[in-house]
Amino acid sequence: MLLIEDLGVQVGDKPILKNVNMEIPDGETHVLFGPNGSGKTTLMMTIMGFTGYTVTHGKITFKGHDVTFMPINERAELGIGVLFQRPPTIHGLKTRTLVEICRKNPNTDIDALAEDLAFKSFLERDVNENLSGGEIKRSELLQLQAQEPDLLLLDEPESGVDLENMAVVGDAINRLLHRGVPKNPTCKLPSKREKKSCLVITHTGYILDYITADRGQVLYDGVLRCSQNAREILKWIREYGYAECVGCPQ
Ligand SMILES: Nc1ncnc2c1ncn2[C@@H]1O[C@H](COP(=O)(O)OP(=O)(O)OP(=O)(O)O)[C@@H](O)[C@H]1O
Model pTM? Predict the structure, then answer.
């Protein structure tokens, strides 16, 4: 699904990511940990193709396509979608209009999606204008549900969300990951091939109560240092701090 090889990225003239290698196979969810400023958002923005993140070396392949220098709209059409940590307010653009633009299938019922996210009353507001932290996340999830991406990039889905709304956010992310998985009463777990793929950044780990993580990784000073069970990594970070991750076996 996603393959990152020897990726170097700089912002302005500042090198941020150094020789990052990462693979997210079909249907897997990987969790990215790391201290503030270690480059986690930079990695997501680079995968999505935002300007300002200059690839100095390396390659990003998605679904077999070299997307390293592909425009952002083409990556979105190919199936990459992002939930921002701090999405901008867009004055003069109604949320409903933005969701219509994101919508993959013109028959998708925006009102029904918004109803599920308790977001219907916000559809006619400008994008993210005067929304609370939890409302912003639900707005982002609504856009993703309309876009129907195959790879979800989730940048701190818990930030600014209270514990009750966390359940709404967690359930919505689960629906996105299991979209199209046939309901099979004899088998509780879908095969990985049927699930969507996901890279999620978290500091608190709350999201792990709602999604099944296949692997965790630690980005430290622009370098991927550790790759293990996500809950184990979280436990380790809580006990010893990030600096100890530098010495972790891969
Ligand atoms: N547009 C920019 N201009 C200048 N520096 C930037 C820019 N974007 C990111 N940086 C710098 O790149 C480094 C990595 O930032 P990034 O947001 O990727 O870190 P992060 O790991 O996501 O941090 P956090 O956990 O705080 O969200 C930081 O030092 C940040 O100041």
Answer: 0.92
